[in-house]
Amino acid sequence: MTATAPPVKDRSPVDERLLRTSPLRRLLGRPELGSVVGAVAVFLFFSIVADSFLRASSFGTVLYAASTIGIMAVPVALLMIGGEFDLSAGVLVTSSALVSSMFSYQMTANIWVGVLVSLLVTLAIGVFNGVMLTRTKLPSFIITLGTFLMLTGLNLGLTKLISGTVSTRTIADMEGFSSARALFAFQFSLGGIDIKVTILWWFGLVALATWILLRTRFGNWIFAVGGGADAARAVGVPVRTTKIGLYMGVAFCAWVSGQHLLFSFDVVQSGEGVGNELIYIIAAVIGGCLITGGYGSAIGSAVGAFIFGMTSKGIVYAEWNPDWFKFFLGAMLLLATLLNAWVRKRAEATK
């Protein structure tokens, strides 16, 4: 009688990609979870303290306020995922509008000529930021702070030099104004809600950015560069091209926002935009983006912008002193950051 050897257990490591992930674990792993919880809390809060907050007209106003921030928060979030900042984003919006207005007026050209020139100039500034960053190896904080100061001075100095005042001349009577306004500042009613075209631009940009991050090679490069530029370069990621592309994305959205600013009000004040770059960064951070890079989502930035819209308009509907707005914004930033950190720890604990 011969004894049979017991079966040998396979002790080879199991590929974690083949393991089934529970819905709770997947939910906790989403970077925008904390911001969604915060958005629900803010919505419920102002629904209670402000009677007019739940009106259809109020919802349209909140969406519009969120969209004006959200259009820029999307590329800023992608840039932060890539590990960089852009402190010139706020004044770049104003620069874009000023170039369109002054070029069209001074050259007596069709409005669309000024719009296209503005696009080229704005993209060139984005390329400048990216090239300076990758060539000099200086922190993006320093590079874009310098660009911020230069654009602030150019916006004011050139506007006063050309127009004689701090604002541009009206271009409402020029050829092409109506068609350009239809693209950048159109609005329509839907179910009693006034929908401005910036809301459509915002939703479209969020969808595009989400697709890029989750379904394209460039999205993988963004996460890799944000996680560690040297490690990403070692495995073949084009770090320089990726970062320049991200700054061009910020520039393109600044152009869209600038054209909306111009064609909504016809004239542009050269001092506008200063300080808005911090709001874009706040929206991205509230949405789950890490300051250190490599983590975040476009959807989270949209939720962060929506929280901004609800807070800015909710204070008005509650008839509170608007001086308190910055306090609530700062409190939301701290609470959202703490909540996002807690969510990430819970997600790591479930692994």
* End-to-end C-alpha gap: 48 Å
Number of strands: 2
Structural class: mainly alpha
What is the helix fraction of residues, given as a range?
55-70%
Shape call: globular
Largest sheet: 2 strands, antiparallel
Strand/helix succession = HHHHHHHEEHHHHHHH
Sheet-strand content, in percent, reads under 5%
Give average pLDDT, whole number: 87
Instruction: Record the strand order, biggest sheet.
Output: 1-2
Describe the model:
By secondary structure, the protein is an all-alpha fold. It has 14 helices and 2 strands; from the N terminus they run αααααααββααααααα. The chain has helices at 23-28, 33-49, 56-81, 89-106, 111-136, 140-163, 177-184, 197-215, 217-227, 229-234, 239-265, 276-286, 298-317, 325-349, and strands at residues 187-190, 193-196. A two-stranded antiparallel sheet has the order 1-2. A hairpin with a 2-residue loop joins β1 (187-190) and β2. α4 crosses α11, α8 packs antiparallel against α13 (298-317) and α12 packs parallel to α14 (325-349). The radius of gyration is 23 Å and the shape is globular.
